[in-house]
Amino acid sequence: MLHLTPDVLRLIDLALSEDQAFSDPTTDALVPPDLRGVGVIRSKAEGVLAGVELALAVFSRVDPSLETRVLMEDGSSLSPGDAVARVEGSASAVLRAERPALNFLQRLSGIATDTSRYVEVVRGMRARIVDTRKTVPGLRYLEKYAVRAGGGANHRMNLADGILIKDNHIAAGRSRGMSLKETVDRALARAPHTIKVEVEVTNLEEVEEALSAGAHIILLDNMSPDEMSRAVKLVDGRAVIEASGGIDLETVRSVAGTGVDLISVGALTHSPKALDLSLDLEFS
User: In 15, 44, 93, 247, which residue has its Cα 20 to 30 A from 122's Cα atom?
Assistant: First the structure.
């Protein structure tokens, strides 16, 4: 469930301020304040819905007297013409909120839709599809929520959520004469007992080093499916295995077939295609 936290409400306010929702000369000139209407948000494409409560919150932020109603829940499959939400009241308020509301809804639904496609491709296999921290600054909570709405799972929400030793951390250690194993040993020794330690590796030798050090999760970075299969056999259940690096819809099933536990896909949030939704304003 998406929670309208103070941070989310601030994002809404920023979006309304950016769009100058309360300084709209077009609406001021053409739409009387007392004119009432009904706005219906409809899908114009197939996809998965995410962010409907957020979109309606935008309308309520502009005018709390607007009557809003969710017609389809987040996670629902959409077809062209489906009505997902309804807002009734001041037509001018609806028009002022329309674009920021749709911007949120289209982006989050696009993320949910893309995620659902990856999830469907690997359905019935061991691997879970997870996201990354490659999100629009300020929108991470919303974008990771959209991934869940699409059937995926979340990786770290932020740096504090776990220890992930990546190539630059390893390079920093090597600059001081530390091997990969020694770097992992150091991280494990300093990690709170509630935090997992994950290490990024690029070849089987590094897999062995990370495993011998006791890493909880091993990230296979840009390995071929054959290398991944060999890494899975080498680990033999002693650590969680994540695959990452340039994985797309054409390659994700072959990656899942190697037996990895997790497949992280940065494209879910760094380059989703917005889902086409629109608002039709109707008058009695």
Answer: 44
